[in-house]
Amino acid sequence: MLFRTSGVARPMLDGLIREIEESADVDRCLDLLLRCAQHLGFSAVVYDYAAVPLSHDGDMIPPSIMRTRDLPEDFSDLWLHQGFYRIDPAQQLCVRRSVPFVWSHQVDAEEVGGLMLTAEHAPVLTYLRDCRLTCGVTVPIYGTGGGLATVTAVREGPGHNFLHHARKELASFALSAQHAHAAVYQSLADEYKTCQAVRLTPRELECIRWVARGKTADDIALILGLSLATAIFHIRNATRKLGAGSRGQAIAHAAHYRLIDLH
What we know:
By secondary structure, the chain is α+β, with helices and mostly antiparallel strands. It folds into two domains: 10-193, Transcription factor LuxR-like, autoinducer-binding domain (Beta-Lactamase); 202-256, Orthogonal Bundle (Arc Repressor Mutant, subunit A), CATH 1.10.10.10. It has ten helices and seven strands. The strands form two sheets. It has a five-stranded antiparallel beta sheet with strand order 2-1-7-6-3, with helices on both faces. The chain has a two-stranded antiparallel ribbon with strand order 4-5. The two termini are 40 Å apart. The relative contact order is 0.15. Mean pLDDT is 91; it is low at 1-8.
């Protein structure tokens, strides 16, 4: 079925979305998403996914995967490894809301989507302005398991009236983004679908799962064929890595990071 927004070739856009739905390759999905964005007047796209978007302390966790199209080569490194992800106002908005939004980082911008811009955001804003990436739309997509994907379309060197155009095309891009995420997620390797913030060894994970079932260290040692000292060692290591001060807190944190299922 064709959808209608402002004067873009809708049959062509619908065809691209159908191709996305049928794609079983991450790179192919992103290439098609870029073509959708270009039909809507944008010039670049970003896709990222975090199985757990926030730590148990409320800190933003960088995504386990990020893919870009037609953005500077250093973009992913800056966002994933140099701390830009945590101070990107659009990303900060995504962990607070589930509604797609338009953003602008023009020189005189004081807020984005109701989020006031501060000195914290300066490195991100300076980089985007230097690269002439000052207007875009972002779609937060929350999965049933609590994972968060964000899909962004950016316009390089937008004209003075592009913000209005972006608002008109937000719904169309949001639809494209939803289909792209569904296809990309199905294609992701399991390592990208799990939280990267806490890494327990298989034995530590096994022990903490037994703790969550109400087993004592003596019980776990017997179940796993370990000495009591070894069982305690693994439980303590898991508790420390989870940033917990007790076994009960360790269970709560492990559930938060989706390492165990309490249901």
